[in-house]
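Putative spermidine synthase (Oesophagostomum dentatum), 237 aa
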Amino acid sequence: MDLLHKGWFTEFSPDDLERMKHEGSGDSKQLKSDGVAMGGAWPGQAFSLKVIEILFHEKSDYQDVLVFKRFLPGMSCCFSDPKLNLFCGDGFEFLKKHKNEFDVIITDSSDPVGPAESLFGQSYYELLRDSLNENGVLSSQGECPWLDLALIGKVVREYCLPLFPVVRYACGSVPTYTSGLMGYVVCSKSKDLDVTKPSRTLSDDDVKRMKLRFYNSQVHSAAFVLPQFIKEELEKK
C-alpha cells in the first residue's frame, strides 16, 4: 500500500489520545477491533474486520485520489495525463477566483445530502455561470428522475432557467446508480448553441478507435428525448 499513509484511516484526535492513555492504550495510530489494538489499517482490511470503534481525526486532501488510483486504475488513468491540473479544495472558493474563464464545466457531484447539498443550490449555479466564458457550457449531475423529480424540476425551473439562455435535461443509463437512471442538467451561455447535438459527430471508426462502449453521437441526442412525466415536471409554471 505504497500510496496510502499509515494512520489516514485510523488517526486519533488529541482528546481521543488523552482518553486512551487513561484507558491503557497510548498508540495514536491504532484501530480497535473486538478489544484488540491493531496498527494502521488499509481500507480493505478495515472493511473485513468486525470494527468496534474507529477514532478518526483528519485526512490528507489527496487521500481519495490516491485510493482511487490504487484500486480503480482503469477508471483513474487520466490522473497521469500531462494536461491535467488537479486541485483538491473548496470548489466554491476556486470558482470565485476564476471568472469568465472556462469553456466547459462538468460537475459530477454527490447526492444533495449534507455538504453536497450546496451543489444543488442557486448560488452554486450562479458561480458556474460566472466562471464560464461567453460561449461556455455546463453539465451538472442532475439526480435520478425516479427518485428526485421535484428537486430536478426546481433546479431546472428556478435555478438554471433564470441564469442561462439554454437549459436542457438529459438522462442516461447508469446501472451502478440507484434505480439505474441518472440525469444531467446541461446549460449554455450562448443562446445559439444546441446542446442536444454533438459538436463533433463520431463515425463508427471513431467509436471503435476510442473503445467507447456506451456513448456515440446518436446516444447523445437521444438522451434529451424525455419520458412524458419528466417533461411535464420541467414545464410546470
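The mean pLDDT is 79. The chain has nine helices and six strands. ok done for today
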